[in-house]
Design brief:
By secondary structure, this protein is of the alpha/beta class. It has helices at residues 19-29, 48-55, 74-80, 91-99, 105-112, 125-129, 131-142, 168-184, 227-238, 267-278, 320-327, 344-354, 396-411; strands spanning 6-11, 33-38, 64-65, 70-71, 83-89, 116-121, 146-147, 151-154, 160-164, 202-207, 212-215, 218-220, 242-247, 259-263, 283-286, 293-295, 314-316, 333-340, 359-364, 376-377, 379-383, 388-390, 394-395. Bound molecules: cytidine-5'-triphosphate.
Length: 413
């Protein structure tokens, strides 16, 4: 699949550097030519010998070699590559990339490459969540760099949260997708160039689950994959709109430069980001599966097991959609989702009315292939003037096109 593709793999100082060995092996197996650049910090986690043996090329990490004036030309390296993959990308190297620092061969190469850059962050959850890191990530995405989201799970520190580097298999899938779509000009991946004529309208979308902490290692969440919300974001972006996508932790990367992605974790974070952006949005689509309740007193220490039963007190989160519905301007179109298991239509109509929506998309968990995790969805669209439109089981991409088409008929009125 990657035959003849020239890939530079940048490895930085993170415990996830051990995954670079498998990544190199998989890339080579797919036919790619791989050259590895390690930062000095990466050498503390994995030996250059391992990566040199697997890649079949000497590993580069210094500007010069020995005392004979031999130097590794980062400009040549940059011109050679079809893709620069930085995996794992530590918080420190991300910060340098975002700010143009150039104190090692990898950073000099990053600044020199003309090809796309894909980065896979790996760090502890609090480092990842920190506004400094998030600002750096947003900045890198605004440069057109592609992030492969870190996963939520157990981290090297023993804490549980978002920060685990994406698995090598997932990275290879994203890389393969990148080259396939680049060559076939598939619009969703036509990086750097939205196809349609630009529109001045701004879209806000919420997607994915929220994660509510019980203590530093446990949380309450749900099975939302974020696929539906991301497909809608992609559809709007491909039609020439600028999209703000506020998402909870999901395993999907965003490559479309017309999508401004804001990563959040909890319902409270999502509320803050979404209400701030709602003020300047023309169309608002809330597809996120927001937690309705959160632990009232999350513990800052791990809760120890006792011999007795235990219960967790929960308090309500703010309904973001209802809050935006209350302040909605006449010119704005507000769209919600309803995921129901019974009494579907009546429940969806109630939400439409109570939350002051213009349109609601109903998914029933009774329908096979609909709802969380699937690549398909079977939807009903209900409008404020009580018209119902039924759709067949379709891919989420196709369902997104139907949803966007209906929203746009309301928006042009
Ligand atoms: N929603 C939201 N903020 C919340 C809860 C829900 O913005 N705190 C939004 C969702 O993004 C979705 C819609 O409200 O667009 C409906 O969500 P859903 O979970 O189906 O309904 P709820 O109103 O939470 O009611 P219930 O869980 O009782 O069905």
């Amino acid at each position: 699949m990657l035959k003849g593709k020239k890939i530079i793999l940048g490895v930085t100082g993170s415990i996830a550097a051990y995954k670079a060995a498998l990544l190199v092996r998989l890339l080579k197996k797919s036919g790619a030519e791989v050259r590895v650049i390690m930062t000095p910090g990466a050498r503390d986690f994995i030996t250059p010998l391992t990566l040199a043996t697997l890649s079949g090329n000497a590993v580069l990490s210094e500007f010069t070699e020995g005392n004979e004036g031999v130097w590794n030309n980062h400009v040549d390296l940059g011109l050679w590559a079809d893709l620069l993959v930085i995996a794992p990308a530590s918080a420190n190297e991300l910060a340098k990339m975002a700010n143009g620092f150039c104190d090692n061969l990898l950073m000099a190469t990053y600044l020199s490459v003309r090809c796309k850059v894909l980065f896979a962050p790996a760090m502890d959850l609090d480092m990842y969540k920190h506004p400094a890191t998030q600002t750096n990530i947003n900045k890198l995405q605004s440069f057109g760099n592609i992030m492969v989201e870190p996963a939520v799970g157990e981290l090297a520190s023993g804490l549980v949260g978002q920060g685990r580097m994406a698995e090598p298999e997932e990275l290879v899938a994203v890389i393969t997708d990148f080259f396939l779509n680049k060559n076939s000009q598939i619009p969703t991946m036509n990086v750097g160039m939205p196809l349609a004529k630009k529109s001045n309208k701004r879209i806000l979308i919420t997607a994915g689950p929220t994660v509510e902490a019980i203590d530093p290692v446990r949380f309450i969440s749900n099975h939302s994959s974020g696929k539906m919300g991301f497909a809608i974001a992609e559809e709007f972006a491909n039609q020439g709109y600028t999209v703000d996508l506020v998402t909870g932790p999901v395993h999907i990367s965003t490559v479309n430069p017309a999508i401004n992605r804001i990563n959040v974790v909890s319902a409270a974070d999502m509320y803050k980001a979404a209400t701030r952006l709602a003020a300047k949005a023309d169309i608002i689509v809330m597809a996120a599966a927001v937690a309705d309740y959160k632990p009232s007193k999350p513990s800052d220490k791990k809760i120890k097991k006792k011999d007795t039963e235990m219960s967790i007190e929960l308090e309500k989160t703010t309904d973001i959609l209802a809050a935006v519905g209350k302040t909605k301007k006449k010119s704005q179109v507000l769209v919600g989702f309803a995921l129901e298991t019974d009494n579907e239509l009546a429940n969806a109509q109630k939400k439409l009315k109570e939350k002051n929506l213009d349109l609601i998309v109903l998914n029933s968990l009774q329908d096979k292939g609909a709802g969380f995790g699937h690549d398909t969805n079977k939807i009903k669209i209900i409008t404020a003037n009580n018209k119902t439109f039924n759709f067949e089981l379709k891919t989420k991409k196709e369902a997104a096109a139907d949803i966007v088409q209906h929203i746009l008929t309301l928006a042009v009125k």
